Amino acid sequence: MSSEMQVFRLPDLGEGLTEAELVNWLVAVGDEVRVDQPIAEVETAKSMVEVPSPYAGTVAELHGEAGETLDVGKPLISIARAGAAPAAPEAPSATDDAVSTGVATSPEVEAAAETYRTEEKAGSGNVLIGYGTPGGATGGRTRPRKASVAVVEPVTEAPAPSLEAALAATRIPGKLSAVISPLVRKMARDHGVSLDAIEGSGASGLIMRRDVEAAISAPAAPAAPASPVTVGAGAAAGSVDGRTGLGVSARTPVRGVRKAVAANMTRSRSEIPEATVWVDVDATALLEMRAELKKRAPHDTPGLLAFIARFVTAGLKRYPALNTRFETAADGSQEIVGFEGINLGFAAQTDRGLVVPSVRNAHELSARELDAEIRRLTAVAREGKATPTELGSGTFTLNNYGVFGVDGSAAIINYPEVAMLGVGRIIDKPWVVNGDLAVRKVTELTLAFDHRVCDGETAAGFLRYVADAIENPGGTLADM
Q1: N or C: lower Cβ tally within 10 Å for the chain?
Q2: Residue 458 in contact with residue 321, Cβ under 8 Å?
């Protein structure tokens, strides 16, 4: 490969994320790109982000296709230096067909990685979640950067590496996939070949192009005797499901936000001994108070959720056990971690799934300030641009499932938090007021809590406090 070629690998996206789905290329082969120009959109389990280029030049090769999941450290794009002609891609051989084009394998890998780190400290000014540069600041990231994540420029006339060395340069610890080359994966996908059924002939069982070609040219296995159930549960769309005997209409990969939500909910259910308490609340006074405020300031009146959020933060100050985290150390010892403030999370439904952004230091904000921040975070979450900090720093979650037209829910606590308050729809119900039957605006509050951190008395006390605040909002706000 020419020494004028610059290979940019998928950067470390932070927050422990080791992979990302390539959603869309923003450039094409032959395009001229400049430093910090967005080159691709990728989706992680946290958010959708644009990846900026650290180099200027001409796009020589795109390593991956839209919809493909890439590991951190794998080549993302090859860029020829400005003023240099892009190198024509070489035909892969029996050895290099197992390795993505542009992967550094020379002995100078560490030196090149250190060069990139030095350039990064100088600052390009463009920052990606968990990646980017400080824009000229003297301080740099304190966590050592893995060499496998660095941008590497191979040195001309470097000794030809062994296959084992090539694999070591492309693989990430804990991510030892059996296939490295996107070319091999694409060939198998295009011909309907299952990589799980192929035994790799390369080092460490690596599946190489010749293995896929052999599978493609192999004669088809004799058809099995006719049977109403012919395919197992892992069958592709259009086949027959082995358990039910029904045709499979679709198979949707679980990835991105949906994958993260599934893992988080599973861990919550498996680790937290949760309990639930609930109460019906007369919200008539709160609705009347808000209507009166809206008459005075039609365009600057907080929403109902903001008022309830204000009552929740006040309640958590009185019952701080619900604003904690339960931790188990490696030696088996356990402790309950309390916090000096409240980061109030709220559930937001987006096209990418359910996410929980959090209002940081919510206890310091008024209802009007809470309303503004809730609206802002909802907007960035739906755009897929919320940061990992905004999505992962909550200490308590408020969930308004009334917008879906339901009264209550046996909610799953947002791990590693220890409690979640749900608010149901507000509807007209018969209610006894001063001994007389009346029609009132009633909602249901549901509190799911971790029974390890508190007993029912604490949970009920908090729930009753919030309920009383909703029923008598003027008096509660006056005391805040």
Answers
A1: C
A2: yes
Q: Which of 63, 191, 299, 451 is catalytic?
A: 451
For residue 392, what are the contacts with CB-CB under 8 A and spacing of at least 6?
A: 15, 46
Domains of the chain: 5-166 (2.40.50.100), 178-221 (4.10.320.10), 257-479 (3.30.559.10)
b/e burial code for range 392-407 (CB count within 10 A of at least 16 → b): bebbbbbbbbbeeeeb
User: Which tokens sit at 315?
Assistant: 């309640």
Q: Is the pTM of this model over 0.70?
A: no
Q: Are 42 and 30 in contact, with CB atoms under 8 Å apart?
A: no
Residue whose C-alpha is closest to residue 304's, from 398, 391, 178: 398
Q: Are strands 127-128 and 348-350 parallel, antiparallel or unpaired?
A: unpaired
CA distance 417 to 358: 12
Length of the chain: 480
Q: Which residues, 6+ apart, have CB-to-CB distance to 219 below 8 Å?
A: none
Q: Are 110 and 186 in contact (CB under 8 A)?
A: no
Q: How deeply is 5 buried, as exposed, middle or buried, from its count of CB atoms within 10 A (0-12, 13-18, 19+)?
A: buried
Encode burial over 147-170: b for 16+ CB neighbours within 10 A, e otherwise: bbbbbbbbbeeeeebebebbbebb
Look up tokens 């909703």; give the residue: 470
Q: Which residue, among 129, 462, 204, has the nearest Cα to 317 in the 3D structure? A: 462
Give the C-alpha separation, 90 to 95, whole Å. 13
Mean pLDDT by 10 residues, the chain (480 residues): 76 68 89 90 74 90 88 90 58 42 41 42 40 39 39 44 44 41 66 74 73 75 46 60 86 77 84 94 96 90 95 97 94 93 92 87 95 95 85 93 89 93 96 95 97 96 97 81
Q: What is the spatial distance between Cα 289 and Cα 322, in angstroms, rounded to a whole number?
A: 28
For residue range 21-73, what is the model confidence (pLDDT) as tens digits?
Answer: 888 899 999 999 998 899 998 877 656 778 888 889 999 999 988 888 888 88
CA proximity to 40, closest of 60, 61, 62 = 62
Can you tell me which residue has the tokens 């439904």?
A: 349
CB neighbourhood size of 315 (10 A): 23
- Residue 357, both tokens: 């952004």
451 is known as an active-site residue: yes
Could you report the per-residue pLDDT of 375-408, keeping only the tens digit for each? Answer: 999 999 888 888 888 888 999 999 998 888 999 8
- Helix H, strand E, coil C: the string for 34-92 is CCCCEEEEEECCCCEEEEECCCCEEEEEECCCCCCEEECCCEEEEEEECCCCCCCCCCC
